[in-house]
């Protein structure tokens, strides 16, 4: 099946580019609320399920034992910009469990923003593992390993008790089994395995409500949601979609981006989970679909996130020369739901 | 009509993302050699027609009058990385016609590569207009304005004699008229107007062969081709597709990227022009289609550009975790042509 166009990119009055994809909204009992495009095909969730991957950090007792605050817990499920505060909190997490940057197995990556790259260069620094957008997740993995009483070395690979616990948590949340045939390696070298978009969405409905989870897991999920709502900067950073959306929406929405055009949302009060995948992997499109869907399901009539629903395209002289917008097909489906 | 999938992105053994698009190959007489997807729809050619936009630089006599060498002429039709040598040549072009960086109307942009950003920051510099990937094109516009005897100020806007000459050259090469309704503004603030992919391809068949062009225009086109073949670094830079492809292929192929998934090719010896547009605007996909098409039409049996046809996807630890590849539909169409 060919997925519908969900997002259009305009320059002047002309549609310059188009993004196809799929979106599914599921309630906590697994009921199908909205489904557009193929939502049964396997999708690598990538970083969009970092909150599930952070569950062992809480469940192992590491967060309490090492005194991890909201900022650290939020960073453990972040794809951060590598800004000063992100780096500081990641270092603090590692120090708290007796480790350091050398224990990170995520590989080096430059900070996301030009300003932070320039600060690093002026200090004669080089992009390092600690700047990797996944360094908080990896620091959390290391804390959890130590709390579990196992040597963190090799934590990024299957067969290590920490990574096995992480995979178990993801399988439990999505209800989808781990499949060898659908397993790949993420950009930060941990395993990622493809599951249906519908099962990812169901996982986020359960993450937002606790429905169907054991008491410890439900408590861990609630603590992660509270931490991210309290520290939305830590989950992404300056100017980023997740930070901007959750700064406005607070506890009403938990949102998380993943590479290759994946996005996930939990709307706890509505008891809903969403998952989005853009066929071509474009983040600019997954963001617009996510914003439009949140606006519709939270019934935001005041334009609270209007700039995320229809972001402007600027020239290098900062003139608006176009915009990215939800397609008619998407708006119609959201309006009917 | 729905365009076919031309490119697949694999992670492990799983197709993670897909890119749809269209490709057309036209001979110098306008004959249709290959057509896949909708090639009649209007497409903004963006930077993929910088060679056409550079014709007035040659035809005005500016190149001779200001002593512009191959490096400068190549830079005038480049989307460059803002590396040291790109910046030096752009400054030299501006100085040659009595102007400076302050005359550039393209807006500021950071250099493309992390290493060049770091050098700039360590020198306490800031991203400026001269680092804009279009600064060579704009420097060429300024040189041509001076040679035409008009004040360069405002050269980026329609109504200025230079920009009117640039638009005339583009219309002449593509054979497509300028349409007010299909006009937008490019990232560097000059007008861009959408024409069919087929007319862009026909323009590059004529650019590569001179067929149907007046003698002065044919001479200018040949000089641009020779300059870019002699200085492929200037047209893009370290690690970039256009530079890598033309370093290997020399005068056998003239290739140029444009924003939003556009690519153009002239194969002078074969008398062919190509144009590619990826629906979603992804450069990683337009590059793979371009490489696969060049490999097919130049009958490259030795894997000369194999790494451009199937680029590897690396983790932050530099492990190969996937690849980008031409789709079966694309390979079949290329094989049949």
TrEMBL record, chains A, B:
It comes from the Bacteria. InterPro entries: Asparaginase_II, Beta-lactam/transpept-like. Coiled coil: none annotated. PANTHER family: L-ASPARAGINASE, PUTATIVE (AFU_ORTHOLOGUE AFUA_3G11890)-RELATED. This is L-asparaginase II. It comes from Methylobrevis pamukkalensis.
């Amino acid at each position: 099946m060919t997925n519908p166009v969900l997002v259009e990119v305009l320059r002047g009055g002309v549609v310059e580019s188009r993004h196809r994809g799929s979106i599914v909204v599921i309630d906590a009992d697994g009921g199908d609320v909205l489904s557009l495009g193929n939502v049964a095909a396997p999708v690598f969730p990538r970083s969009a399920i970092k909150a599930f991957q952070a569950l062992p950090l809480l469940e192992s007792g590491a967060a309490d034992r090492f005194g991890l605050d909201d900022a650290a817990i939020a960073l453990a499920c972040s794809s951060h910009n590598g800004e000063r505060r992100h780096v500081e909190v990641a270092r603090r997490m590692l120090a708290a469990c007796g480790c350091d940057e050398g224990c990170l197995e995520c590989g080096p990556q430059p900070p996301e923003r030009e300003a932070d790259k320039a600060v690093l260069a002026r200090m004669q620094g080089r992009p390092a593992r600690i700047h990797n957008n996944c360094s908080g997740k990896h620091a959390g993995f290391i804390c959890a390993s130590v709390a579990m009483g196992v040597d963190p070395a090799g934590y990024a690979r299957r067969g290590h008790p920490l990574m096995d616990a992480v995979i178990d948590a993801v399988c439990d949340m999505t209800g989808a089994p781990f499949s060898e045939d659908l397993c790949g390696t993420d950009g930060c070298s941990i395993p990622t395995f493809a599951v249906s978009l519908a099962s990812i969405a169901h996982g986020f409905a359960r993450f937002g409500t606790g429905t169907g989870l054991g008491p410890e897991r439900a408590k861990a999920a609630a603590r992660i949601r509270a931490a991210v709502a309290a520290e939305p900067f830590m989950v992404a950073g300056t100017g980023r979609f997740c930070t901007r959306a959750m700064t406005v929406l607070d506890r009403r929405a938990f949102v998380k981006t993943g590479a290759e055009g994946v996005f996930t949302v939990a709307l706890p009060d509505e008891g809903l989970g969403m998952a989005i995948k853009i066929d071509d992997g474009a983040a600019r499109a997954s963001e617009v679909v996510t914003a439009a869907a949140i606006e519709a399901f939270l019934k935001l009539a005041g334009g609270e996130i209007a700039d995320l629903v229809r972001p402007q395209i600027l020239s290098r002289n900062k003139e608006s020369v176009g915009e990215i917008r939800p397609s008619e097909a998407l708006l119609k489906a959201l309006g009917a739901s």
